[in-house]
Amino acid sequence: MLVDSHCHLNFPELAGRIDEALALMRDNQVTHALCVSVTLQEFPQVRALAERFPHLYGSVGVHPGYPDVPVVTEQELVELADHPKIVAIGETGLDYFRINDDGEWQRDRFRTHIRAARRSRKPLIIHTREAAADTLRIMHEECAGEVGGVMHCFTESWEVAQSAMDLGLYISFSGIVTFKNAVGLKEVARRVPLDRMLIETDSPYLAPVPFRGKTNEPGLVRYVAEEIARLRDIPLDEVASATSNNFFKLFNTR
Fold first, then answer.
1. Which of 20, 48, 118, 125 maximizes the CB count within 10 A of its CB?
2. What does CATH list as the number for 2-250?
3. Cα(177)–Cα(90) distance, rounded to whole angstroms?
4. Could you tell me which residues come within 8 angstroms of residue 73 by beta carbon, excluding any fewer than 6 positions away?
């Protein structure tokens, strides 16, 4: 059993071929997937997928890479999260990679999501890019550890991973861990305890080797698990079992 803890099945690259994507999941023993929201405008698509398929779940949130969408309120997030198949708040966080200002709007939005997560008692899906220090600081200030969550598509240092785990967060590895040049990330994947680890695709992006450069999909999360098993010199079943159990525990699903 494998679980893709983060994908975007509603994105155009996959939305028109859902049946094919679900078939590949079955072929690769990927039993469940979490479809993650990036704006409230497309959230109904995420919710519809979660409602239609028993083995899919959804989240609600606004990605920090969308500066021009309407301001999201804590109350909106709490109300939209009040659904049995919506299991998390996010993705949310900070992304300073292409920022053209001081980023205060991102930090305000992040705080709103953390407060909504605490009210709804649902975990956070955290995106951070070139903003690890501020991401961790705000999580501390807003008591994000009360609900926990996951640092998705992790690409930071071992020290950042430790700080996140100290807050009660899981560390999720994507197809990036299979890339030849991801030397530092491979070392983090060796060191993160199995009981604090998730795996994901972030599809349709970041397809793992040997599919790098192609459209990614949830069924390919198997290659992420295989690389982690290789790095740690343990059976694939051990990675699959641990990461799947962690998913069901964190998101209170089964």
1. 125
2. 3.20.20.140
3. 22
4. 112
Q: What is the DSSP string of 165-204?
A: HHTTEEEEE-GGGGSTT-HHHHHHHHHS-GGGEEE---BT
Helix segments in 70-218, DSSP class H: 74-81, 104-120, 132-141, 158-166, 183-191
In this predicted structure, what is the pLDDT of residue 210?
A: 97
DSSP H or E run through 95: strand 86-95
Indicate the pTM of the whole model: 0.97
Contact by Cβ (8 Å): 91, 59: yes
Angstrom distance (rounded) from CA 81 to CA 115: 13
Task: Determine the longest span between alpha carbons in the chain, in angstroms.
Answer: 47
Q: Which of 70, 46, 44, 69 is nearest to 58 (CA)?
A: 46
With beta carbons less than 8 A apart as the criterion, state whether 36 and 49 touch. Answer: no
Residue 100 has pLDDT above 80, yes or no: no
Domain boundaries, the chain: 2-250
**Residue 28 in 3-state DSSP?**
coil
pLDDT at 254: 72
Q: What is the pLDDT of residue 215?
A: 97
Peptide bond into 227 cis (omega under 30): no
